Prior knowledge:
Layout: E1 5-11, E2 17-21, E3 24-28, E4 33-37, E5 44-48, E6 51-57, H1 61-82, E7 85-92, E8 99-103, E9 106-110, E10 119-122, E11 128-132, E12 135-140, H2 143-156, E13 170-178
Antiparallel strand pairs: 1-6, 2-3, 3-4, 5-6, 7-12, 7-13, 8-9, 9-10, 11-12
Amino acid sequence: MRAIETVRSLEIPEGVDVEVEGRVVKITGEKGTLIRDFSHAPVSISLEGNVVRVQTSWPRKKEASLVGTVFSHIKNMITGVTKGFTYKLKIVFSHFPISVKVKERAVAIENFTGERSSRVAKIMGEAKVVVKGEDVIVQGINIEDVSQTAANIQRATKVKLKDPRVFLDGIYVYEQHEGMEE
């Protein structure tokens, strides 16, 4: 038997402005503004006072799960504009000293396992990357940009054609949390 409707509600915290036009959600907070288009999802998004409601009527299984997905995206957007997101990566090497440099919208990883050419990882969206000693810090207000940038950096140092049990060199995510450090 199908449910009549699936609803998730989220209360908007102080200092956050939310605008909903159809299925386009614009959230503004102290850290910045995020806009996201949910027109692909068969859900209705409404703003009632200081509560955002995501719902669908007579949902199938996939549509009911999309309510939770859209709800989580909106929740992450609110967290991003209030606190932000931080991923910390550690530079690990035992054979060749790795040097990491930020060049425009990319991270250059030089001397990885003694390679002559540098490996490059793309910085997504508005994420900011800072190298402090043996730490690489990725910060931003959009969780998808921050996490994808961290994943790009980690993936760029994947060991190929060597025994990964011996060559543990690389750049690895070791901490992720809400909030941005200055």
